Amino acid sequence: MCKYLLSLMILCYALLTTPVQANTCDDFTNVTMRKLHSDESVNFCEFKDKPLLIVNTASNCGFTGQFEELEALHNKYKDKGLVVIGFPSDDFFQEENDEADTAEVCYVNYGVTFTMLSTSAVRGDDANPIFKHLNAETSSPKWNFYKYLVSADRKTVQRFNSRTKPLSANLTQAIENSL
Fold it and tell me: Which residues form the active site (predicted)?
């Protein structure tokens, strides 16, 4: 009995004195944002040491069909570490007014399984914190479906405009180089 109590006390001491390793980061991705049409949130530090493909999206845009290729990129590269994240925005007046409708376009119409966040601004003073950084590093999106490839170490940001298709050779080569 005494050995059991001693072992238990040693285990408790070890648990209480061991620092907890939380998902933390000391860069612009130390941000928590709510997922699209959900009460759940995601902290971008969860994606530490992984390249990010960040896209400002819209449900009623001529480029909305790019969701299909973004989903294909997600499926092709997620096991290699790429994280695709969509940011619905009404900055260009082409997003649904109701978040449930935006979710339907993404999840039902296009079968999106990559992370989609709640609608937010991506330009100007009201831009969400992620886009404030991306805009400072490159420039703010001039339309929907601008793509920002952020290196795993967060030191490099490459910007691709709306006309760059997600499966284009130029973007897929940049992704492969970042993995």
Answer: 61
